[in-house]
Amino acid sequence: MSYKDEWLVIEANDDIDEMEHREPSEEFLFYRAVANGDVDAVRKNCEQGRFMDTEGVGVLSKDPITNLKYHFVVTTAMVTRMCRQHGMELEQAFRLSDFYIRKLDDIHTADEIKRLHDEMVMDYTEKMRRYHHNNTNSKHINACKEYIYAHIKERITIEDLADALGVSSSYLSRLFKKETGVSVSAYIRNRKIDMAKNLLRFSNDSMIDIANRLSFSSQSHFIQQFREVVGMTPKKYRDTYYMVEWGAESPRPDLAGNGVGLTT
Q1: pTM value?
Q2: Contacts 24+ apart (CB under 8 A), 195-203
Q3: Most buried by CB count within 10 Å: which residue of 36, 109, 203, 254?
Q4: Tell me, what's the pLDDT at 6?
């Protein structure tokens, strides 16, 4: 019997009448809260444990852990697409989705899946909150930012961006500075430094590896650019913030009082 024919039999079975799904409006409101960057609403949903509530939720697997993982994938996919529709950069949205879904391979309990779900939705929500707070850009500039995000590990020039958008480099340069307040080159440098900060904090990559990964011309050039943007050397930054969650903790006690603070 084909799957299609099997479904026809199940559809006619009395047992299926006992299953009722919750109103889709509730789930839609949750996804929209994430996409709107409504941190309070999403945090409340997580605290209430709505993801673990099985009432009105379809059964996707007979195994409860596998079933929960499938629901996690569905939620992540819906959140990703909703955030994309509300302005999140395309590659950021889908790479973030891939990252969290792959984490399912390493977890095997319901509590772990719930923690992963809560962290995932709060991560998307925080990113969307910052996006809505900062975004006042035109279609060209948003497309420009998406290109930069997708190619941040490469050497990017204004000519590359202009070619990708089908406009002149002089026009794009003027428009970018007008809308963002910084030059294209400064924006690219700042985004590279942001990624370098993450690598310094959460990886053991060497300075030269980070410089090469982000296409700085040399390690010394990377150190110079980092110091200009952050106000300290990459080594000092790593010594201060290694494995410190964003905004969660103060600098180490031995480094407190030196004027160094967490940046987001």
Answers
A1: 0.58
A2: 195/152, 196/222, 196/226, 196/234, 197/230, 197/237, 197/241, 197/263, 200/234, 200/237, 200/238, 200/241, 200/242, 201/237, 201/238, 201/241, 201/242, 201/243, 201/244, 202/243
A3: 36
A4: 66
